[in-house]
Amino acid sequence: MNWTWFHKLGSPKWFYEISGRWLPWLGWSAALLLAVGVVWGLAFAPQDYQQGNSFRIIYIHVPAAFLAQSVYVMLAVAGVVGLVWKMKLADVALQQAAPIGAWMTFIALLTGAVWGKPTWGAWWVWDARLTSMLILLFLYFGIIALGNAISNRDSAAKACAVLALVGVVNIPIIKYSVEWWNTLHQPATFKITEKPAMPMEMWLPLLVMVLGFYCFFAAVLLMRMRLEVLRRESRSSWVKSEIKGLVGGSR
Amino acid sequence: MNPVRKKRLYIVLAILAGVGIAVALALSALQQNINLFYTPTQIARGEAPEGTRIRAGGLVEEGSVKRDRDSLSVDFRVTDGAETVTIRFQGILPDLFREGQGIVALGRVNEEGIMVADEVLAKHDENYMPPEVTQALEQSGMMKHYEDGKGYSK
């Protein structure tokens, strides 16, 4: 296997150039997928036979919950890369992805509560799925707080990487909580490996929304990372010429 | 990979394995407390603590719902296929409450073995379908078959 791309990631300049090329593609596909998914899911997908229209919140809830967990796994991978290979870009990715992941977790919890009230009869229940998701939110808060509290960048990177790594144990607990224990939350509808538990005309908009959320996350992450790379490398000559080009171009 | 990185990678993996084992042990020790509810079988076997508020969960048995004529009181039986528990509830039931639906009730078991619930939550499953599909399934007599198929094993 060719690992040159991985070693190239060690160079912030290379990352800045390549991400600039990817960004428009990701941004436009996110906008397109989300627009199609929202209209299709909220207006055209059929109602559910039991829950009526209130089930449509699934088109926000499930993609947000997917992202919340995937982003955390990404943080842990970035943490390992940062700890083992001492790659600076891994720390940039970790710090910049954490707030997005926290927002996704918050959206998943909020839409879940709004959905729970009419269907279950309660905003919140201390069942295993809901509680482990709340713990995920606090893990994100911990990483954000730790990153900001330590002023030495190398120690902050190391501490955040360790916390991200330790917290990843929570991810399988979230995923399998509905199977290991009795919970009020139903098992997963959107499965990659098995036949989905809903008909195609309900499932396809959900797929579009999930892909749209991933593209949205990637686009926002790249934008945040590019800004952070410029900030951290502000003394290097390539950043100075880049900024000069940007400022000169806008005048 | 150079030896320094290899060593660091092993340390990282060891930390992860250690934390994973610790959490797995803690969770398996807390198994009973993490379960949101007891099934009727567990209550019949005496696994649920007596005299305290517990949650019972299962399917509302077909034809078991008896509403009181002049109050909001309602009696119904909850089953997991093997055992049943009778639940008495006074109040407004959630919209999704119906016979055959999964529910979770919070309350206390009295001397007669009836659970007096002060909260009933409806549980729905992971299957969604349009109303037309449900009607078609009912007309062809497949609904029962479908409902049985998805089961309530937990």
From TrEMBL, chain A:
Every Cytochrome c assembly protein domain range: 28-185
Q: Does the keyword Membrane apply?
A: yes
- Bilayer-crossing residues are 22-45, 57-85, 97-116, 128-147, 159-178, 202-222
Query: Which Pfam family, just one, is annotated for this protein?
Result: Cytochrom_C_asm
Top-level taxon: Bacteria
Q: Which InterPro entries match?
A: Cyt_c_assembly, Cyt_c_biogenesis_CcmC, Cyt_c_biogenesis_CcsA/CcmC
Q: Where in the cell is it found?
A: Cell inner membrane; Membrane
Its record classes its membrane topology as: Multi-pass membrane protein
Q: What is its main location?
A: membrane
Q: Which UniProt keywords apply?
A: Cell inner membrane, Cell membrane, Cytochrome c-type biogenesis, Membrane, Transmembrane, Transmembrane helix, Transport
- Please explain the role this protein plays, according to its UniProt record: Required for the export of heme to the periplasm for the biogenesis of c-type cytochromes.
The UniProt similarity line reads: Belongs to the CcmC/CycZ/HelC family.
What PANTHER family does this protein map onto? CYTOCHROME B_B6 PROTEIN-RELATED (PTHR30071:SF1), HEME EXPORTER PROTEIN C (PTHR30071)
Q: What is this protein called?
A: Heme exporter protein C
- Record the organism: Stutzerimonas azotifigens
Name of the gene encoding the protein in the UniProt record: ccmC
UniProtKB/TrEMBL annotation, chain B:
Q: Which UniProt keywords apply?
A: Cell membrane, Cytochrome c-type biogenesis, Heme, Iron, Membrane, Metal-binding, Signal-anchor, Transmembrane, Transmembrane helix
Major location (coarse): membrane
Query: Which residues of the sequence carry a binding annotation for heme?
Result: H124, Y128
Q: Is Membrane a UniProt keyword of this protein? A: yes
Cytoplasmic side of membrane: 1-8
Checking InterPro entries in the record gives: CcmE, CcmE-like_sf, NA-bd_OB-fold
Q: How does it sit in the membrane?
A: Single-pass type II membrane protein
Q: Where in the cell is it found?
A: Cell membrane; Membrane
| Keyword Chaperone among UniProt keywords | no
Give me the Extracellular side stretches, as residue ranges: 30-154
- Give the transmembrane region(s): 9-30
User: Which Pfam families does this entry report, sorted A to Z?
Assistant: CcmE
Q: Which HAMAP family match?
A: CcmE (MF_01959)
Looking up PANTHER family in the UniProt record yields: CYTOCHROME C-TYPE BIOGENESIS PROTEIN CCME HOMOLOG, MITOCHONDRIAL (PTHR34128)
Q: Give the family, as the similarity comment puts it.
A: Belongs to the CcmE/CycJ family.
Record's function text: Heme chaperone required for the biogenesis of c-type cytochromes. Transiently binds heme delivered by CcmC and transfers the heme to apo-cytochromes in a process facilitated by CcmF and CcmH.
> What name is this protein filed under?
Cytochrome c-type biogenesis protein CcmE
Q: Which organism is it from?
A: Stutzerimonas azotifigens
Q: What is the lineage of its organism?
A: Bacteria, Pseudomonadati, Pseudomonadota, Gammaproteobacteria, Pseudomonadales
